[in-house]
Amino acid sequence: MIDAKSHWEKIYASKRQDEVSWYQPTPEVSLDFINELNISKDAAIIDVGGGDSYLADNLLATGFTNITVLDISEGAINKAKHRLGKEAEKIKWIVSDINELVSTKQFDCWHDRAAFHFLTTETQIEKYLSIAQNHISDNGRMIIGTFSASGPEKCSGLPIKQYSEQSLSTVLKTWFEKIKCITTDHITPFNTIQNFLFCSFRKINFQ
Q1: pLDDT per position in the chain (207 positions), as tens?
Q2: In angstroms, rounded to a whole number, what is the distance separating the alpha carbons of residues 136 and 129?
Q3: Which has the closest alpha carbon to 155: 23, 25, 31?
Q4: Which DSSP string do the residues of 14-76 spell out, in sequence order?
Q5: CA-based nearest residue to 111, from 51, 152, 171
Q6: Which H helix or E strand runs over 95?
Q7: CA 50, CA 26: separation in Å to the nearest integer?
Q8: Could you tell me if 176 and 202 are in contact, meaning their C-beta atoms sit under 8 angstroms apart?
Q9: How many CB atoms sit inside 10 A of residue 6's CB?
């Protein structure tokens, strides 16, 4: 069985930013989904599996002030910190597997374009969703970007789980209600196309 942390540390140690398939200097789809939530600039946002992605950079540039980036790879986070320089001090960084998250913080926006589709067993998925609903505020939103049914079957040498709008909504339906879904093509640095499904959800509050 592959040790996930070792796997990702090796990936980030051996490749430049523009040598990984998810490289995206301006994550337009993620930014559009976040902006459509109409949340305040001091709303708590977490980027799950954010690593050295540019979402945090772009959120800072547009005035958001309460940003957390979580990644299993310390190397990925160190790369992002180095790139951001002094600006990195404005972000809270967490090195952790999302399914081992220990935090009391509540988030108004939970964004994940990187981690969820690597969860391939029912147990992993249920644990993730339990952690998410415990850490999303009562009026919070979740944005999930996964490989679509037309997307790749592997990423960085690991198997992934593909989703359709219906299957993702079904998996999340216990705790989250769908707001919107789209499919979009991501062009990798190698000029290949990866089809993604992006969906936003609102947390269901049980009285």
Answers
A1: 567 777 667 766 666 666 555 566 778 999 999 999 999 999 999 999 998 889 999 999 999 999 999 999 999 899 999 999 999 999 999 999 999 998 899 999 999 998 998 899 999 999 999 999 999 999 899 999 998 877 667 766 677 799 999 999 999 999 999 999 999 887 766 677 778 899 999 999 765
A2: 10
A3: 23
A4: H--GGGSTT--SS-HHHHHHHHHTT--TT--EEEET-TT-SHHHHHHHTT---EEEEES-HHH
A5: 51
A6: strand 91-95
A7: 13
A8: yes
A9: 11
**For residue 91, what are the contacts with CB-CB under 8 A and spacing of at least 6?**
56, 60, 67, 68, 69, 84
> Taking the complete model, does pTM exceed 0.85, yes or no?
yes
To which residue do tokens 């705790």 refer? 175
| 196 within 8 A of 148, measured Cβ to Cβ | yes
Comparing CA positions, the residue from 16, 11, 18, 17 lying closest to residue 189 is 18
Distance of CA 14 to the CA centre of its chain: 22
Distances (CA, A) of 179 to 17, 81, 84, 142: 32, 33, 33, 10
β-pair type (67-71, 91-95): parallel
| Partners of 159 in the β-ladder | 154
Dist CA 207 CA 59 (whole Å):
33
Distance CA 204, CA 142 (A): 11
Buried-exposed string 46-63: b where 16+ CB fall within 10 A, e elsewhere: bbbbbbbbbbbbbbbeee
> Could you give the CA distance from residue 82 to residue 77 in angstroms, rounded to a whole number?
9
